[in-house]
Amino acid sequence: MASAPASVLTDGPSPLRPVVSPRLSRAGEVLELVRTGRASTITELATAMNVARSTVTERVEALTDRGLLSSRGEIVSGRGRPATVLAFNPAAGVVLSAQIGMSGLRVGAYDLAGAPLAAEESTDIPVTAGPDRVLAALVTALDAQLVAAGRARADVLGLGIGVPGRIELETAREGGSAAARPWIDFPVAERLGEIYDVPVSVGRGMGLLAMAEQRAFHPDASVLLGLKVGTVVECGVVIDGKIVDGGSGLAGEIGHTPVPGADAVCVCGNTGCLNAVAGGGAIAERLRLLGHEVDSARGVAQLAQQGVVEAGRQVREAGRHIGAVLAGTVNLLNPDVIVVWGYLADSGDQLFAGLQESLYRMGVPAATRHVTIEYTRLGADAGVRGAAVSTTEDVLSAAHIDLLLTRWQAEHP
Ligand SMILES: [Zn+2]
Fold it and tell me: InterPro entries, from UniProt (predicted)?
């Protein structure tokens, strides 16, 4: 499941007709030209697409019937009749998205321009509860979002889900056995597709989080890394606007890179992994040995914020270890931006100080001078926003719009 590419649209039980009506082919292209501001009248569209005006008119009518295009008035240019100015209507559908995390899930509902239709909401339920219970809670939360947005299931055009990486799942243990097993190969997309009757895309949470930050605040960044420093340390990689999942969905799993000289045992079976040394879980364990009552990455962050010296020192030291591993990544990928996210990043300046210390000492100077390291601006919403962005881009792709209109016309003759 976790190794699924970030944005594969899988059809639900009543799949979109695989054959596009010839009268609707390239309708998606019309929408794209209008949506991106490259054309707004029939004449401009016909010129851009190198087709007859009548061909464009037929597709504009279909898009208008479906509500995706509307008229924004008329303009008079030179001689001839006034031309209707077309506009994209983002209210023509809803995209639902969710981020399934290790201890809870977060959901959102968005219009087709990515604007939230209701406040994003969280539900506490651990992944260890298993896919059946987690998905039941997810459907309840998604339906509540629709109600809050004043919309219905019939308005939903796509559903995007971010899930923990496989390795992250494998670190969650219940009663001694890995909680990942029931999730591996569980048909998340098919199950939700049956319920909402729309395409569902499932991607790794970290990649979606990085994508959300890239689209919202760093559209010009050719390489952006999303670094999560919570219970474990992991990365999401976005290159040229695309999430890089790697050959088997494990790109960015830097938490299992060995730290020189460290011998702490990691859940993966190796010793000295970055997670076992600098993950929030490992820090909490060390602080407990020093007499502090703390059992999570969140707790570590709280202690550091409260000014507990030892907690701050541990977080800074973790930052140094993470920075050392990150230096290799910076040398390899030459990122423009590294966005840092997670409980340990919330703990104040200590983590950033440690990170930068190692990064500037160990990275290629030109590459480390170039990179901007910043705290997440989307915060807890990054994951759901990323899943929504990725899904909306798929839903609005030219090929998908052709299919959507074909299906719409078949159902509304
Ligand atoms: Zn490991």
Answer: ATPase_NBD (IPR043129), ROK (IPR000600), Tscrpt_reg_IclR_N (IPR005471), WH-like_DNA-bd_sf (IPR036388), WH_DNA-bd_sf (IPR036390)
